[in-house]
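Holo prediction. Input below; ligand is zinc ion.
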Amino acid sequence: MERRCAECGAPLTGRPDKRFCCDDCRTAFHNRRYHDAGKGAVEVNRILRLNRRILAAVHSSGIRSIPLSDSRMRGYDPRYFTAMEKAPLRRPVYHCYEYSFIIRSGRLYLRQIS
Ligand SMILES: [Zn+2]
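Structure of the complex:
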C-alpha cells in the first residue's frame, strides 16, 4: 500500500515510519491538532451554527446535492457535525441539527429531517 503524507496526502518515500512529506506539513499537522484540541464549546458551537446556516441556505434554494468545493459551501467545515450513523457496508450518514447528508466523491447529498 502506498503511504501518504498525513497532512497533504503527497506520496511518501524513504523511512517506513515517516508520516509527513516535509517539515512544513509536520508543523501544520501538529499545530492544527493542538489548536483543535483547545477549541472550547463556544468555538465549536460557532462552527456548527455556521455549518447549519450554510446547509439551510443550500436546502432552501432547492439544492439536494452540491460539491463541497462549490462557492455556496464556502465556510462549511465538514469536520464538525452533530451526529453520525454508520451501518455496516454503508456510507456514514452525518447530521447537522435538522439536516442529514452523506458525502460521496466530494459531493454532499442533503435532506432535511422533518
Ligand atoms: Zn505533506
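The chain has a mean pLDDT of 90. That is the main takeaway for now.
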